[in-house]
Structures are given as C-alpha cells and as structure tokens.
C-alpha cells in the first residue's frame, strides 16, 4: 500500500502513548514502514516520504532491550525500549508500544511480526536483512515517545495506584460539583458510610455541621485554585454521630493541561487520637496553670471546674472538704464519711447540683471499688442506653440527659480534699474512656495538692489574723480623755497581716497615750516585729517617760533586736519573700524627714507617740520618721501639727524632739500611717492634701468617729493598696474644772491631818463619802512618805473621772519600793496598804521630781 502521512493533534497530556501526544508508525509483517505521523517526524526528524517503504530496522541505532521488552509483553501488546537514529545525527532513546492492527493466519498472539527482535549486541547492519522477517498477513501500530516521558508516566501511574490501594492515608477525588468520584474507602470504616462512595455527596452520610466545614474547604480550593494543607476538622456520620473522627485534610485542585478544573483531590488522615492527646495535654496545661494560683478554696474549686468544662465535660461539680475552709486536719480517705461543701458547678444542667450544698463523700460509694475507698476514679458510660439491669449510681444521673459520667476524688497525702464529678450530655461527644479518666486523675492530684496548700495557708492565716487581732486594741474606745475609732487595711487582702499597729494606752491621772507605728515589710515576720515593738511601747509607757525619751528607748531596743536577729528575720525580707519591700524610709520620711545615719539593714520602723492630758488639754508628742498627725479643729478647719520628726527606729543619727501644744476641746486628732498618703507613684504632699480635704468632709465633729474614719479610708482607690493603711482618730475632751483639785503642802508632819481633812471635805462635796476612809489612809501614807524621805514642798491632787485618782508629788527622784515588813517591824507597810486599798498604783518621774499615784474605782451610782 502507499505511504500514508498520519497527523496527530498536539497536546500536553503526560500520557506517553496517547495518539495525540506520541509518534506513530504502521509497520507491516515484513517490517516495512507503511505509515508515519508528524509526531514521529518531530521526534526523529525523518519525513514520511523518507521513511515509508523502508525497513524499520534501518532506524535502529542499537539493539532493542529484549529482556525489558519481553517483560512488558501482555497478550498481543508489547512494550519496549530502543535507541533510534535521528535524521540530523545522534541517537534518541525511545519507549515504544506495538499493537497489532491485522493478524495474519499464522501469527501467534503475543509475538511481534516476523522473528523476535535482535538481542543486545545483534543489531542489524544498515541495509541488511529486516528484523521483521515474519510471515505476512498483518500490520502493527508502533507508538513511540521519549523514554524519559514513558518512565515518568509509569512512576506516576504506579503512585496513583498505590495511593488508592493503601489504607494509611485517605484519598478522595471530587468532581466540580463536589461529588465523590473515587476514594480508598477502607479509611472510613464508620457506621453509615456507603460501601460504594462514587457519585455520593458528603451530605449523604456525614453530619450536617461537619459537611458544611468540609465543603467550604473544597469549594474554596475550587474557586481559588490554591491548595490547603493541615486543615483539621471533625467528621461524624449521620447514623453514629458520637463515633466521629478528627481528620487532617490536604486539598488541591485537579486541572487539565489547558487549565480547566476537573475537581478537587483530598488527602486525609485520621488524627483522632493525636487530637485527643493534644486536647488532654492542653487541658492538663490549663489546669496546672490555674491551680495553685489562688489561696482561696472557693476560687480553687471554681478554677478546677473552669479548666474541665467545657474542654473535657459538659457539666462539672467540685466538692471541697470542710477542713480546707477551716484550716483543720482532713480525714484519711479510708474513713467512711467526709463532709464536703459544694464549691463550684459549671456547665448546663447544674441548677440541681447547686442546690446540694453539703453532700457526703460516702454518697459517692458504689461498692468496694468506689473512689473514697481506692483513691481511684469511677467511670460510668452508656447512661443514655441504660434500660434494664443494675441502675446506675445516683450521682451519675444527677444531670438531665447525661450520657457518660465520671467521679474522681481529690486525694493527697492519703487524705481527702474533695471530689470532682464530670458529666457529658452533648449528643456529639463520645463517652468518657480510660484516657479521660487518667487525665482527670492527674488533674485531681494537682488540685488536691493545691487545696492542701489552701488548707495549710488557711490555718496559718487564721493564726496570723488571730495574732494580729490580739495585738491591736478594739477599733472603738471611750475614755475620760478621748474617744477613738480606728480602721486597719492590710496591703495584702489575702494575707491580712502586716507591720502596722496602733494603740490607745491609758496612763495615770486620766491621761492617755496614742500610738501609731509601721514596721517595714509585710506578713508574719513584720507582724512579729510589730508585736515586739507594741509590747515594748506599752512597757515603756507604764514608766511614763516623755515621748522623746520613750522613742529613744525604743530605738535602742530596735538596734539590739537587729544585732541579735538574722537579716530579714523581722521584716520578711528573705529570699523567698516576694512581698517584702526594701528597708528604707517611708515616702513621707524621704521628703520631710532628716537625713538618717547608717542603718544596719535588717530592722526598721516608724512610730508616732503622743500623750494627751485632759486636765490641761496639752498634748506632748514625738515622731520617729512618722508623718505628723492632722487636727480637725472645732471650726471645721484641718491643719497638720508642726513638729520635728526624728529618724526612723533602727536608723539612728539624730535625737528625737518633743513637741507640746494645746488641743481645743472637741477637736479631732488623726494619726495614720503613710499608706493612707501614698497612691502608687503620687506625690506625698498631694496625698496629705487629699487627706486634709477628706478629713474636713468627713463630719467627724458631729457624727460617730468610726463612721467618719471608714468614710475617709473608703476614698482610697479600689485597686490593690501599695502599702498597709492604718487610721486612728481621737476626739479630745477636757475635764471639767470641778473634777480636779490640788493643794500645796509644806514638809511638816502636822500637815498629814490637814491633808486627810481636805480630802474628806472634797470627797463629801463630790458625793463620794464611801471612799473617804480608804482615801484618807492612802493620802496619809503617801504624804507621810513624801515628807519623811523627800522633804518639801509636797503637792496633793485629786482627779475624778471614771476612777478616783490621788496624786502626791515631791522633789525627790528616789524610787518608791513596796516590801513586806516583818511582824516585829513598826514601819514599812505604807505602800503595801496603798496597793491593797487601790485598784492600781504607780509612780512617774518629772523634771521637778516624782509623782506617786493611786486609783480607786468609783462606787456604783445609786
């Protein structure tokens, strides 16, 4: 037949033996080329008229790879690889495929036309005998393409086949309408998935919510042409929504060489366990982060519930043992009953749980393997399917619609701290499993440890608060000299203790001492230091020195304590003390105080000590680095008392100065710590001005002092205070002139009788006849001792307040001593009689000598 020129359509398909993409020739049974395509011409450079009618063997540049060719023979089609000559020189390695077009009568299926091709090394010589000498009677279509293209196609074809055969990574092909065309279904062994997925849409068997997310992803890939990687979504079937899986999806578009979209290919992998593991780790991390962040049992329970719901359960209830709230000793978990308090309920259906305030842990028992007995959790599943058989425990079905429940005790150090119960009610959530139980047990152990820390802290906190309260006087007091009210606010509302203190100390002769101090630091160490200083102030005040002398003695004591104690022992400044502030002057002291000397760096405090005498209205006061008191005058104006502050206690360098001034009766004196002035980094002068205005607006002159003091402190910002705040307000009084009387006596023993007569007359005038006899005895002994041992002149004074005070002053500084006289001694019983006839007695020293005083209780009013 004549030579036929076959033209093929051009295309970019990678399939090497597509008719429109490969070179092709028709060879007869004799091996002669009878047809030649333009693609073959492009491949080898030979035109059809140059090749047709010639033996195909002339194109061979070497032997055909026989083993490879025979290995690829299938039925009547066989493939191979051969080197062919290019028209312009050189050799082109081509892959070929031979397909019979007509079979001769003697042709054998599966064999090429004529004899087999020459083996390697037996290539025919050009112009020699044809390698196709077989019998005539058939023609063969020979397709050829570059061998590199053939190899690549075979690899890609094998890869695609393996992807659809394997079941470790899912593969799904979707058309442009998002219908499934092909998938390796073994990865979807879920209830409700069709056996044959081709032609189905995802909505035919997946849950609607999951379908929406998946189709949005696929549609985005179709619209943008951009692949999406590492997209994770939940996949649940309509028939079994609780047995869903988490899939990680990678989707990319399928395009023809022309660019037309054919659909979307999606690779997916079941990462359910990986996802659950990450979720469990995240829950554990969140729980660990929040647990222990509070020293409140209530807050710790709420933090635990919030960490578990909704991440792990739909409803969570936390019960905390009563000893955690009271700081008592918990009960060993092997005991049968432990009182619990329902502390937190989170999630849906918890209204009924909130009503149960004090359940018993024994109610959770469900046999010998109950949580309180073993310390392990109890897991109950399938509650929505329970119809017959043993009923579930009551705690497990306490929430409506529950499908799975879990109860885990909070146990640490072999003691019960509480219990946590979890319920799952949502239809789309799987039941609790053993992994969930292990996770909750781990969280429960950490929560139990946090609650035990709360319990221990509560015990220490209650002890500290009890100590603080025992060291401070009542918030309200009323004496003949002053009426007082106080407000104390610690900077740490959780700890509740600090180094601030105030005191109202009754002195002799109706006088009163007002004290406000501030030990540097917070917490128990500062409280302990404050206790020492307060005790020292009370002890020194009993000796009745002037305020400057008292502060000097107190400063010496602070130096001694600093030398004998470890650094940081008294102020809380240890390596572990996060809230300790550095040893330095207060903000007021830095701006207004004198330059201090060298501090030893381990003990420091400020103190203001004032003594008010209601007889003459005079107030003597001295300051050790403390801000001055404010005086609310009877006309409503407020001024700060002009005084010279000394250095803080423990700093040293300068002496303390006493200031004496007269206070108008009815005025209000306000003593405070610098925490009332400081507001973050604000100026102290601004703080003093704010306090002055608040004191003016408080109405302390015409309302109860306690209400006024609370109103002054309430004006502080609601944020955490930078320092402890203490405010002591005192409304001063003046004794009526008729309640005080005094006489000057000479140093003559004869005046003793006169003194008794004067006292008798005055007591009768006051209506205190019941005290005449005892008072005469007291006066006789005191005046006699003054005349005998001190000389004159002698002063006698009577003061009537809520007690009767009798004073005898003389110019001697010798100290009176009470002793027990022998039976045979005539004297030495005077002070003993005074002590027996008085409620209390004592002496104080002045610049002019000393004063011995004795108090007697007034008889009840008739």
Automatic annotation (TrEMBL):
Q: Which PROSITE patterns match?
A: PAC, PAS
Where does the UniProt annotation place the signal sequence?
Answer: none
Q: Which residues form the PAC domain?
A: 231-283
Pfam families in alphabetical order: GAF, HATPase_c_2, PAS, PAS_4, SpoIIE
Give a GO molecular function annotation for the protein: phosphatase activity
Write out the biased-composition intervals (Low complexity): 116-125
SMART domains linked: PAS, PP2C_SIG
Q: Which superkingdom does the taxonomy of this entry point to? A: Bacteria
Q: Which UniProt keywords apply?
A: Hydrolase
Query: Entry's InterPro entries?
Result: Bact_Sigma-Reg, GAF, GAF-like_dom_sf, HATPase_C_sf, HATPase_dom, PAS, PAS-assoc_C, PAS-like_dom_sf
Write out the ranges of the annotated region (Disordered). 103-135
Q: Know the name of this protein?
A: PAS domain S-box protein
- What lineage is on file? Bacteria, Bacillati, Actinomycetota, Actinomycetes, Kitasatosporales
